[in-house]
Amino acid sequence: MKKKYNVYGIGNALVDMEFEVKDEFFEKHDVEKGVMTLVDEETQSRLINDIRREETIEKPGGSAANTIFAVSQFGGKAFYSCKVANDPFGDLYLEDMKEAGIDTNFDRQEREDGITGKCLVMVTDDAERTMNTYLGITQNLSTKEIDELAIRNSQYVYIEGYLVTSDSGFKAMKQTKKVAQENNVKTALTLSDPAIAEGFKDRFEEIIGASVDLLFCNEQEAKIYTGKDDVMEAREVLKKDAKRFVITQGANGAIIYDGDTFIDIEPYEVNAVDTNGAGDMYAGAFLYGITNGMGFAGAGKLASLAGSKVVSQFGPRLKWHQMQDILNDVKDAE
Questions:
Q1: Where does the pLDDT of residue 93 fall: very low under 50, low under 70, confident under 90, or very high at 90 and above?
Q2: In what order do the strands lie in the sheet with 14-20?
Q3: Average pLDDT taken over every residue of the chain
Q4: Considering the entire predicted model, what is its pTM?
Q5: Which of 48, 171, 211, 217 has the greatest count of CB atoms below 10 A from its CB?
Q6: What is 5-333's CATH number?
Q7: What angle do CA 95, 101, 105 make, to 5 degrees?
Q8: Please, what is the angle between helix 63-74 and helix 320-333, to 10°?
């Protein structure tokens, strides 16, 4: 039976505010570079005020949301479960989802009062992104935001790893996986961030459990999760926990395990200016590919090209016409 959705995603809903900064800014404010750090609203506001930009670009984001957005832009059908407040940022967020053709739990659910989460994205000259995130109401995401009907009507569920940082989010991750498995829906999970993979390793081991159908991680996260210093050793350990997986390696491409063999995906040469959202885009393109007739190698090529395009600009998302060009380029090359 044909499913209504290619991918059902669950994750944080955050409005991104992105700025270019120098390394000295991190030293001044004691900010750890290159990772995502959870902060309170006061700390985030202080950092934004010190950057002193007259105009702030505010765009709906969140890791899994960016992935789901990519699935939709390529032409797939997607659903997103999240938690936004009944405030202007929440309005902005849901309008963006609606314009992209993405269904959400708020199509059938009322919003609560509160503050929609915000993510301060700081990009340095080396294209590395550092995120300071105030979760706001999304830290209260729980099993109430799960739409079981939408899960049953999906080919894959995609679970954002950042949710392990809250007790209610962790329960939502486990429940999402449980509902998916009970209804023969494939499960995909991302480790999200090296600091998260290290700080919440026990929770990841619990949620992954006997196995997930597809795991996304970068090389550093793979080493942290498996406790191995070598990626070749790490990939062997991952085979015990994931039926299939993708290890992204930045400028070195990616390693894909399709359940039987390893596939090396060559990188596309690019002048990277902002790595924010590269992993999210990769996952979105890959999930679109495997739910729309592509094999793992073809989906890997699509994801690699899409990732190279997103790091060559500022911001974690591309325009619709760019996504179609990427899709056409890969199809023409086959």
A1: very high
A2: 36-38, 129-134, 117-123, 14-20, 58-61
A3: 92
A4: 0.90
A5: 217
A6: 3.40.1190.20
A7: 70
A8: 60
The span from the first CA to the last CA of the chain, in angstroms, equals 28
What pLDDT is recorded for position 332? 67
How far is Cα 182 from Cα 189, in angstroms, rounded to an integer?
Answer: 17
CB of 196 closer than 8 Å to CB of 163:
no
Neighbouring CB atoms inside 10 A of 122's CB total: 24
Triad 282, 287, 293: Cα angle to 5°: 125
Instruction: Give the model confidence (pLDDT) of 152-170 as tens digits.
Output: 999 999 999 999 999 999 9
Tell me the three-class secondary structure of the chain, residue by residue: CCCCEEEEEECCCEEEEEEECCHHHHHHHCCCCCCEEECCHHHHHHHHHHHCCCCCCEEEECHHHHHHHHHHHHCCCEEEECCCECCHHHHHHHHHHHHCCCEEHHHCCCCECCCCEEEEEEECCCCCEEEEEECHHHHHCCHHHCCHHHHHCEEEEEECHHHHHCHHHHHHHHHHHHHHHHCCCEEEEECCCHHHHHHCHHHHHHHHCCCECEEEEEHHHHHHHHCCCCHHHHHHHHHHHECCEEEECHHHCEEEECCCCEEEECCCCCCCCCCCCHHHHHHHHHHHHHCCCCCHHHHHHHHHHHHHHHHCCCCCCCCHHHHHHHHHHHHHHC
Beta partners for residue 245, in sequence order: 215, 257
pLDDT, position 51? 87
Model pLDDT for residues 69-91, shown as the tens digit of each residue: 999 999 999 999 999 999 999 99
Q: Please name which of 123, 7, 17, 133 lies closest in space to residue 67, comparing C-alpha atoms.
A: 7
Structure-block tokens of residue 166: 């809250």
33-51 residue pLDDT tens: 988 899 999 999 899 888 8
